[in-house]
Amino acid sequence: MGLPELHTRQSTRYNRLAVASLALAALAAVGTVVAGMAILAVFAVGAGHVSLNQIRLRHERGRALALTALVIGYGLASLVLASTVYFATVFSVQQQ
Fold first, then answer.
1. Which residue, among 84, 62, 77, 60, has the nearest Cα to 25 in the 3D structure?
2. Distance between CA 37 and CA 50 in Å, rounded?
3. pTM score
4. If both were cysteines, with which of 13, 37, 51, 56 could 66 make a disulfide (CB 3.0 to 4.6 Å apart)?
């Protein structure tokens, strides 16, 4: 088995950061509904981007996990931003 063939094979282990980013995204989704803990989405997005880079460089598994965490994280961030703008607009109109 030559060196180029070794680099083309995918590792059998999952990237740990991809798993952690998905766990953070799930916790952020549940926490946003229950306790307003949407800030965890920021960490899920950061960990998702770093894990995608690690997966690419190390040829590990877990790309789908990292992408799912990014979708959930960015979705929550968009939802929080939209609701913040909405409530800021509603409360500013009521104050006048």
1. 77
2. 22
3. 0.81
4. 51
